[in-house]
Design goal:
Elements: H1 5-10, H2 36-43, H3 59-72, E1 76-80, H4 84-94, E2 100-104, H5 109-118, E3 125-129, H6 134-140, E4 145-151, H7 163-173, E5 176-180, E6 197-201, E7 215-219, H8 221-228, H9 234-238, H10 244-254, H11 257-277, E8 281-283, H12 293-299, E9 309-313, H13 317-329, E10 334-335, E11 345-347, H14 359-365, E12 371-375, H15 382-395, H16 398-403
Parallel strand pairs: 2-3, 2-4, 4-5, 5-6, 10-11
Antiparallel strand pairs: 1-7, 6-7, 8-9, 9-12, 11-12
Residues 82-84, 108, 110-111, 151, 155, 180, 182-183, 201, 203, 213, 215, 353 line the site of pyridoxal-5'-phosphate.
Length: 404
């Protein structure tokens, strides 16, 4: 039977302590034991179902983790205080001094900064590659390589990683394929395509209300046990734990993700087509002009579409800034980083979320000054939104510039 990520979330059933329709929130940092022996066994990792201390795990974090594991089709998951709080422990768990990572060069700026500036302090080196070229990826693998790292749809350039092709390489060289699926939850199921570990920043579409940061690592029971090990687990020892109250609120939002993703995708697809037709340089995986359109089409789960993210290039940073300010003034969205909100969010990644990437490298990867990244909202009337955006572009002479 086909893998149905939203059904897998819906089919979970956990009642609250008094029969509540939502599981009870465990508002405790520490847990009592009826016997000292069970406490010892729990420390050793041998007391299933027992909770010890909330940096390790909590019932509320367990419920959210299980729902996300069901969505991604992995054995289990652990939730973390932020997306970076998921990415960094995984990489540090998998790699040590003298070991090597091959990573896509078009990834979230914070991940890039971690790999480029921080991991080398611990003796971990990274080669950044064009992830869409499997030959280049293979050529970068060395005997020390432990991890292949990519985003299913990359931030901010919306490059699509061929997860199946990368998984074959990972198998061939005995590497772990780690995929950050933040931009395409439900649309893409990286584990189904062969990835070993799937990460999300829950801050974005999954929570969807821009009121918290959060993250998750979805993988095998063995990996999650390693991450939480009291002696040498990176999640346990680096301490990027999610708070139970947040885990409970994110779980409630997760239940409407399938409806939201359909609307984000519908709206983004509509705007992308209109922008392209108006002569703007538009990047959206749902457009036939996207270099990986057919690949992405073959990767996605039915119904959830091509996602809520698109970019346009308006030619210069000044024009990009003027357009974003005018769109905000007309209440078409907010000039803000991040994504997955009910309102459209826009920012110029070169000077914000990707500013950690040096200018010459930005140019090399095609990240231009005039690029605006949109996270398209849940607008009820996207035709009206387009008309109003179009009007802003006309007033700022942006369309004339592009068509000329
Ligand atoms: N991965 C991607 C693709 C992102 O866009 C971000 C944040 O923008 C992160 C990871 C980091 O997540 P967080 O901000 O929750 O730490």
């Amino acid at each position: 039977m086909a893998f149905k990520p939203a059904n897998n979330i819906q089919d979970l059933q956990y009642f609250g302590e008094f029969g509540g329709v939502n599981p009870s929130i465990s508002d405790s940092s520490t847990y009592t034991f009826l016997s000292a022996k069970t406490m010892f066994d729990t420390f050793e990792g041998n007391a299933d179902g027992c909770y010890l201390y909330s940096r390790h795990s909590t019932p509320s974090n367990f419920y959210l983790g299980e729902a996300l594991a069901a969505m991604e089709g992995t054995e289990t998951a652990t939730v973390t205080a932020s997306g970076m709080g998921a990415i960094t422990p995984v990489l540090l768990q998998l790699c040590g001094n003298g070991e090597h990572i091959v990573s896509s060069r078009t990834i979230y700026g914070g991940t890039y900064a971690f790999l480029k500036n921080f991991a080398p302090r611990l003796g971990i080196d990274t080669t950044f590659v064009d992830i869409t070229n499997l030959e280049t990826v293979e050529a970068a693998i060395t005997p020390e390589t432990k991890v292949l790292y990519c985003e299913s749809v990359s931030n901010p350039l919306l490059e699509v990683a061929d997860v199946k092709g990368l998984a074959k390489l990972a198998k061939k060289y005995n590497l772990q394929l780690v995929v950050d699926n933040t931009f395409s939850p439900l649309s893409v199921s990286p584990k189904k395509l062969g990835a070993d570990i799937v990460i999300h920043s829950l801050t974005k579409f999954i929570n969807g209300s821009s009121d918290t940061v959060g993250g998750v690592v979805c993988g095998t029971q063995e990996l999650i046990d390693q991450l939480r090990n009291v002696n040498d687990g990176a999640a346990m020892l680096l301490g990027s734990t999610m708070d139970s109250l947040r885990a409970a609120s994110i779980l409630k939002n997760l239940r409407t993700l399938h409806i939201r993703m359909q609307q984000h995708s519908y709206n983004a697809n509509y705007l992308a087509k209109k922008f392209e037709d108006a002569g703007l340089k538009t990047v959206y995986p749902g457009l036939k002009s996207h270099p990986s359109h057919n690949l992405f089409k073959s990767m996605i789960n039915d119904k959830y579409g091509y996602g809520g993210m698109l970019t346009i290039d308006v030619g210069s940073l000044n024009k990009a800034n003027a357009l974003m300010e005018l769109m905000q003034e007309r209440n078409l969205g907010y000039l803000a980083v991040s994504l997955g909100f009910y309102k459209t969010l826009f920012s110029a990644p070169g000077s914000s979320t990707s500013s950690e990437i040096p200018e010459e490298e930005q140019t090399e990867m095609g990240l231009s000054d005039g690029l605006i990244r949109f996270s398209i909202g849940l607008d009820a009337d996207i035709e009206r939104t387009y008309d109003m955006m179009h009007q802003c572009m006309i007033e700022l002479n942006i369309l004339e510039h592009e068509i000329a």
